[in-house]
Amino acid sequence: NAGVTQTPKFQVLKTGQSMTLQCAQDMNHEYMSWYRQDPGMGLRLIHYSVGAGITDQGEVPNGYNVSRSTTEDFPLRLLSAAPSQTSVYFCASSYFEGPLHFGNGTRLTVT
Amino acid sequence: QKEVEQDPGPLSVPEGAIVSLNCTYSNSAFQYFMWYRQYSRKGPELLMYTYSSGNKEDGRFTAQVDKSSKYISLFIRDSQPSDSATYLCAMRIDYGGATNKLIFGTGTLLAVQP
Q1: Tens-level pLDDT at each residue, chain B (114 residues)
Q2: A48 touching B (Cβ < 8 Å)
Q3: Minimal C-alpha gap between A33 and chain B (Å)
Q4: Were A17 and a residue from A13, A65, B24, B55 both cysteine, which residue would form a disulfide, CB within 3.0 to 4.6 Å?
């Protein structure tokens, strides 16, 4: 049972480049979400999804896009990376009434 | 003011000590309270999950919720070096099954010295 799988583990981008962070879960969870973790700021919600085809914005959505075509996958897209997006990104999933299960994160540096 | 406040530490204790970790919050609508443990370069993992007020015990870990004071605590008995990690509190309102948005504290870094 893999749980929540995030790829890549590390990434370095130049300002203006685009990339997609991948997230997949094998627990048939309806709810999926993306957080970023920065020193002193804790985990902040970027976007979330309550099911295939349904997404919504969290606390810090600017600069990020998401889509959810299947229950299992919830990719996060950076269209034009900025140094302020240097962070650790976590994907998490759950049943609606249950606790969140996290992946091990993607460490992104934008130069 | 943040919705959830947590002392970042670091907190350093000797092996075998009782550790007390705390969070305060401002939203009286929070009903579900969680504690996560995060080892360096790993994702948060769930330790305790409680609903409303009261205590919950699981092995060496005890979670307490005092909704009247808007205060939650995690106690670790007989602390071990393997408990060294960042501890995150998290909470949410009752969305009635519509979503599962959590609000996190900033985390407390704990070091248990052998």
Answers
A1: 789 999 888 999 999 999 999 999 999 999 999 999 999 999 999 999 998 888 999 999 999 999 999 999 999 999 999 999 999 999 998 877 777 889 999 999 999 999
A2: yes
A3: 8
A4: A13
